[in-house]
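Annex B. Sample input.
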Amino acid sequence: MKTEIAAILVLAVLLSGPPITSAYTRAGSNTYRTNGSQGDVNSAILTARDGATIEIPAGTFTWTGQLKISKFIHLKGASRETTRINNENRSSDALLVFEAPGGNTEISDCEFISMPSNVYVFSLKTLPAENQKGKPILLHDCSFRTGYRYAIEWDTNGGVIWNCYFVGDSGGLHGISFVPRSLERSWNSPSTMGKDDRTGTANTYVEDCTFKNAQIACTNFDDNSRVVMRHCTFDNAALGSHGQETSLGGARHWEIYDNKFIYTASGPGYPLNLQSWFLARGGTGVITGNDFPAIPWKTGLQFAVFSINRRGQIPCQTRYPAARQIGQSWKGAGGYSYPSVPRDGSGYYTDPVYLWNNTGEGASKISLDQYTPDECGNGQKVEDYVKENRDYVLGPKPGWERYPYPHPLRTGLRRGVR
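Annex B, continued. Sample output.
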């Protein structure tokens, strides 16, 4: 009986993740060359010490389980054009990466393909270390192709994503969802925009990436997130966000600057039914130095406060300011609370969104999005909650300066320098 129980336990362990094989070879003291199978990569990761490089060769590989990385390593393909990983996992994320205490875990030079349309299963998901004292994760020179779903869920604040390419075959939704839902303290702490991110690790930076064909959204700035999108190309792709209505916390702040937006009016598959370049539903931020072409018969930028008309995570809001709405931030002492949402605590203040030095016809087309139907039945109007020179300002944000570009973690590679 004991032998049978032991065999069952071993079988359960093997079935819980990628099979452990040992086809990899060592190249140098801390480099592992795998055969590209999920089991072999998993085996190399389990064996490797901190600072190791795990290499995946050129080729096409199908992964059906979940690969977990919780140590300080570099997972590296041959190139994003030649190392292709097909994610056939239907029930969990293909690659689950935790921030590592020992250094900046790095993922690079691979193409990830996830074609089944399941918004809640990702090619790559990141999480804070269990003690939340890990180092930011670095992702670069990868490409992601998906059906109708985000390719990445970034569930921590911090890290750098650069030289990556995102394309959605559905033309609807793909890219990155920023949802550090476990970091509620992120809302109840001062902003770290621009030069106020003194270590460069408080915000997640997305640099020199391309997002193509996402008429609904190629980003989701969501619960407690602090995101910087800069020097990127949005090719028929819109930015999106969530407020504290259908999300527990809503976006904290975002910075969108020095990006190029492209609208294609004709051709096979075009035009896409873009409604705007960015729908902002909560928090605060800056929008500057972008080129926003016109979207025919549509607006360029939209502000919304859905919690006044839509039932969700908080009571329907009936007084200004709505909880964590557009133009809200946190300062601590001297700030106010939201009487209808006591769990949000106190310390809030009005900190408007600032827009300036943007070009293109779309830059001047700013509108307010009224959610319909009115599920709350209180007759609240978005124009009473979002006003120019109170909740958004057409001018530069006082004291704000761009954080150094490129991000220092890009130029500080490799081990121990970050």
